[in-house]
Amino acid sequence: MDGNNKLFSRRAFSGQHDANFYCRNCSQPFAKWQGQCPACESWGQISERKLLSSDSSNGIAFGYRQPNAHTYNKTAKGIIQAAAKDSISWSGHLKASTQTKLTQPIKMVHVEDSTLLDERIALENKELNWVFGGGVVQGSLTLLSGSPGIGKSTLALQVANMLADSLNPIDSDPLQQILYISGEESLAQVRLRAQRLGKSNSSLYVASEINIDTIFELVHSGENSECSFAGVIMDSIQTIFAPDIPSAAGSVNQVKECTLRFLRLAKEQNIPVILIGHVTKSGDIAGPKVLEHIVDTVMQLEGDPQSSRRFLRCLKNRFGTTSEIGVFDMTDKGLMTLTNPLLAYISPTHVETCDASGVPTTQSPECDGSAITITMEGSRPIPIEIQALVNRSHHNSLTQIRGVGVSYEKLQLLLAVLERRANVKFGNRSVFINVAEGYTIQEPAADLALAAALISALTNHPLHSRGLLLGEIALSGALRPVKMLESRLMAAHKIGLKWSIIPHVTCPETRRKLSKYDGSLKIHYVSSLMDAFTLLFRAGGAKFTNIPC
Fold this sequence. Notes:
By secondary structure, this protein is α/β, with parallel strands linked by helices. The chain has two domains: 120-339, Rossmann fold; 348-546, 2-Layer Sandwich (Ribosomal Protein S5, domain 2). Helix content is 28%, strand content 21%. It has helices at residues 3-13, 59-63, 74-84, 96-103, 126-132, 152-167, 187-197, 212-219, 252-269, 290-294, 408-421, 447-459, 485-494, 508-514, 529-539, and strands spanning 19-23, 29-30, 46-50, 120-121, 136-137, 141-146, 178-182, 204-208, 231-235, 273-277, 297-302, 309-317, 325-331, 334-337, 370-377, 380-392, 401-404, 429-435, 467-469, 472-473, 479-480, 499-503, 522-526. The strands form six sheets. A nine-stranded mixed sheet has the order 8-7-9-10-6-11-12-13-14. The protein has a four-stranded mixed sheet with strand order 15-16-18-17. A three-stranded antiparallel sheet has the order 2-1-3, covered by helices on one side. InterPro entries: AAA+_ATPase (IPR003593), DNA_repair_RadA (IPR004504), Lon_proteolytic (IPR008269), P-loop_NTPase (IPR027417), RecA_ATP-bd (IPR020588), Ribosomal_Su5_D2-typ_SF (IPR020568), Ribsml_uS5_D2-typ_fold_subgr (IPR014721). It comes from Albugo candida. Pfam families: AAA_25, Lon_C. This is RecA family profile 1 domain-containing protein. One of its GO terms (biological process) is proteolysis.
């Protein structure tokens, strides 16, 4: 017998490794590996699969497994069939009549209205409620992702405390418990984090576990295997594993299968489940793309590691508005809501501030290369400050184009349009763009503000303070309209801006709605890039025709 056959024989018949082989095509079991399956005559379909251990035959664990995740052999089939009698199926706690309705197609108009989607758990943090669409939905599965050290575990522990507070009013009896499970930290480390946050609800339970079967046993630790917890938070999905899946924790199969089982838990027990997910070097959510398809809600925590500012962005929400954003500050007490998110990304020189007696304070001198625009995150307007610096290259040094919060491709496009349509050349100059507080621009409505900041830095002439610039720049140099103008102008009015330049509006109804802001916010309508620059720099004391080329 050669070395390979000895290896297969030893692995197949060893008492230490209770392993077998089966055909992936027809599920025929074999004592050892072979090239062809004699049952279906297929080649290369024989794979090794470990038998289920006796302690993993708990009916609760089997109830959440997918049918194709079972071990198909005679011994394992007997275990599965025996456990299935006591297992919790997808509709295990539903009445027989209800289960029949779920398996029979009926007309849409005959489907009974359900109040489950209206059962939201309101959190005490208004920003979190805003991002979730009004609160956490019962029976929902949420994925929270973010870069390492950005504050995912801190936010998850805060949400766990908020859920415990919301589900347990002062006079509530009995208490509804929340389970926080950490696969990355010990119980002492979780306790240390809770002490730093300064709050720990008595109905919040913690555990440190990475075996998903053990986790489900913890969740159903009540009488008669009933669900003992009203909410589950798992940190993180990449650290847990299913013992019946022959791959390492964090692999594609493990992440997909474990997420599907948590989905069954959330829907079956009608409890909110929150999973923490890792991200890759490029910032994408780690794991298979199907992970984002399985869950109901996808949240991403963003921010500059050098800044305390954090943004919670909603990328997907089956029960609310997508693309909402929450603004927070990372403190020693965790993530705190900003007092006025509208002023989070602009400097005081662009808004009117007053002291305690109501007298306007003295503003610092205006600086060139600074412009204000308002972007939309879902239905929320976000005023941001764009800062530009243009410097002549000396001694034949190479020019640079750098942007923080703006893509390199966007800067190249704007510089090309300015050179071709406005006769402004940056060929022998280095260009630097920065968006205040680490914000990232993701919509074209900020094009006009970017271009104006570049021209202001080039001419050393600051723009008038307290002004708003909106407009998408086309390749022809024309200004294209932007969406949700009324919401943007309302935000500009709230923060005390005095003038605005926006694309020409042809709809009479839209102009009528915008006219109500014309008293406190002077609105200038322009149709092209040249019209906007002529208006801007003529009003600022600089002649646009004298811009250096």
